[in-house]
Design a protein that fits this description.
single chain, mainly alpha, two-stranded parallel sheet, globular
Length: 427
């Protein structure tokens, strides 16, 4: 393996292990900023060592051991050892695995998952809602500041500053970094659900790069959602979110073609949809509704996804039902993105003119750089037979897209507008 190939392998491993590594370190040092730095230090050491010795059989364990040794060194150097003695009643002078295990056991919690525990910890009420979500998306989801900014229709600089301030605030507060229980945990649940939701969304439709989807992110969000459902069995929105993710994830295999190109929902091969995930999703939605949460924002979105899952073909999709659900969702969770999706639903239910009318009512300033807006307008114009106008909108959407596959798809649609006799299709 060449040096370049080794570096690429190490970078890929670090992307996979990074979140879990930070979570474990944060439990030791009680500082998310420091935990992130220690993880990065371990990565740098790996770049140096593995280039000479090769990638170890268990790279995750190697990175963890390297980072924790560095953490113990810092604890000693910064006179934090005495504090740890008092907290867990154990001498940490030994640097072996037994000593490290003792630290983790002393900080144990009933969540049982390091990543989910760190999300709860980072979603501390001392931080603003925006700061909590941005920080956890960066640490756990591994999203870049640019990806987080696009998810929130914000600027990259604003998100970067938000994350820096959040780390400093947590560090200065001297928090115990214990996982909350009871009522305190319930208060943080809204932020935790939002983080998991956004991690899933980035996996389902990547904002940048050359891959349309990032299945690993979807799988991680689903895993966290399933654990959360076990911890909060009476919270309807937990099951609403779980139902939404399971149903959406059922389509992943059908969303891209053999070359990684995008396949619109109405053109997907539904035989490729994962029926087990659909059943799980519908069961979670039923649980949410049984708990009285049918009108919750996640349950409503799960109900929308269920309309597609229950249709045996694109032609059988109950678009009027979907449009009515979006009308309700708009009142429960108002946002420009919901308004855009509502316009798409109405266009499918009542024709492209109805969709265009709703698009014209949206505050476009909030979605100025949001590629799906001109893409939707282009689709409505295309189906209305206004090909020249549609072509302009598809090209505009392609120019705004940061995802290579999505951009190619939009340019393909623009080209189709110039083909005489092109057949409109539903997206």
């Amino acid at each position: 393996m060449t040096t370049i190939e080794t570096h690429q392998t190490i970078e890929a491993i670090f992307r996979i292990e990074r979140a879990r590594l930070i979570a474990g370190l944060a439990r030791m040092v009680r500082d998310v900023g420091l935990a992130e730095e220690l993880a990065q230090d371990a990565f740098v050491v790996a770049l140096s060592e593995w280039t000479k010795t090769g990638v170890p059989a268990n790279p995750g364990a190697w990175l963890t051991a390297a980072a924790k040794r560095r953490a113990i060194d810092l604890l000693r150097r910064d006179r934090m050892l005495a504090r740890k003695h008092a907290e867990i009643g154990r001498d940490l002078t030994e640097e072996d695995e037994a000593g490290i295990a003792a630290i983790e056991a002393a900080m144990d919690d009933d969540v049982g998952d390091e990543l989910l525990s760190l999300i709860f910890i980072a979603c501390h009420p001392i931080l603003s809602r925006e700061a909590r979500v941005a920080l956890t998306l960066r640490l756990i989801g591994g999203l870049t500041t640019d990806e987080i900014a696009r998810a929130y229709l914000s600027s990259e600089a604003a998100v970067a500053q938000r994350i820096v301030r959040a780390k400093k605030t947590l560090a200065k507060a001297g928090l115990s970094f214990e996982v909350p229980r009871g009522e305190e945990r319930r208060k943080r649940l809204v932020s935790v659900l939002e983080v998991i939701y956004l991690i899933f969304n980035e996996g389902y439709s990547a904002t940048a790069g050359e891959d349309l989807i990032r299945p690993a992110l979807c799988a991680e969000a689903q895993r966290l959602g399933r654990i959360l459902a076990g911890l909060a069995p009476e919270e309807p929105e937990v099951f609403g979110l779980l139902g939404l993710m399971e149903i959406q994830a059922s389509r992943l295999a059908a969303r891209v073609g053999p070359q990684g190109d995008a396949i619109p929902l109405t053109q997907q091969n539904r035989a490729l949809w994962d029926r087990l995930l659909i059943r799980r999703g519908l069961a979670a939605l039923e649980r949410a509704e049984a708990l009285g949460g049918a009108a919750g924002p996640y349950a409503l979105q799960a109900a929308l996804a269920a309309c597609h899952a229950r249709a045996r073909s694109a032609e059988e999709t109950d678009w009027p039902r979907i449009a009515s659900l979006y009308d309700i969702l708009r009142s429960v969770m108002p946002s420009p993105v919901v308004d855009l999706n509502r316009a798409v639903a109405h266009s499918m239910a009542f024709g492209p003119k109805a969709g265009l009318a709703l698009l014209d009512a949206i505050d476009e300033a909030a979605l100025r750089d949001y590629a799906p807006l001109p893409a939707a307008r282009g689709d409505f114009l295309f189906r209305a037979g206004r090909m020249a106008e549609a072509k302009v909108q598809f090209e505009r959407a392609a120019g705004l897209s940061r995802n290579g596959r999505e951009r190619a798809f939009l340019l393909g649609r623009a080209e189709a507008c110039a083909i005489e006799g092109a057949t409109p299709y539903r997206k």
